Amino acid sequence: MADERRRRTNCLAGEESPDPPRIAWRKQMRASVLDAAHDLTCEAGWDRVSLSAVAARAQVSRPSVYKEFGNRANLGRALVVRETRQFLAGVADTLYPGLPESQACLEAAILYVLEEADNQPVIRAVIAAARHGSDSLLPYLTARADPIFDAGRSLVQEWLGTRYPEQHTETLEMTADVIVRMTISHLILPADEPHITARKLAVAAVKLLQRQHHVDGDIR
C-alpha cells in the first residue's frame, strides 16, 4: 500500500543506495531549511518570513539557502510542494482502496480535504491569508499549470479511471479538473458545512460522468 501511494502521489523517492556525503549533507540541509520555513510560516505567516530568518532558524548560512533555493519565491514554492504532496498522500489513502460505492468514496475524499486542511499548519496559513486577500503562497495551490494542481488532478483522474473504466480519458480528465478546482474553491471560500459541500461536489461529479457517458453513447 505504501509503495502504491508513493507512486500515485509521486511524492517519495524509491529505494536508493546511500548518497555520497556531500549529497547527503545537501539533502539534510534542504530538509532543515524547509522545516525552518514551515515553523516560521506557522508562527508569523509567509509574508513575514525572510531568508535570513529561515537561515538562522535552520542554523545554516544565508548563502547556502540562496544557493539551494535561489530566492524567497522558490523557497515558498518548495515548501508548499512538500506540504501539499504529503497532504495528497492522505487523500490517496482515502481513495484507495476506499469505500465500495464510488460516490461515497469520492465524498469521503473531498471531506478529508476540507477538514484535514485545517489540521495542516502551512495549508491552513495559506488559506487563512487568502481569505483576507494576501498571501504569495496561494498561487502554488491554485495555479492551473502547477505541479501541485497537476498532482491532485492526476490522483483523482487515475482513481476515476479505476471506478469508471468505460469513460473516455478526456471525460475523466475534465471531471477530475472540475473536482479539484471546486474543492480548492470551497477551501478558500466555504459556502456550507464541509460534509454538505463534500456531498454536493461528489453528486455533481457523478452526474457529470453519467451525462457524458450518455452523450458519448449517443454519438457512437
Automatic annotation (TrEMBL):
**Where is the HTH tetR-type domain positioned along the sequence?**
27-87
Q: Which organism is it from?
A: Streptomyces zaomyceticus
Would the keyword Transcription be found if you checked this record's keyword annotation? yes
Task: Kindly state which keywords UniProt assigns to this record, in alphabetical order.
Answer: DNA-binding, Transcription, Transcription regulation
List the transmembrane segments. none
List the stretches of this chain annotated as a DNA-binding region: 50-69
What protein does this entry describe? TetR family transcriptional regulator
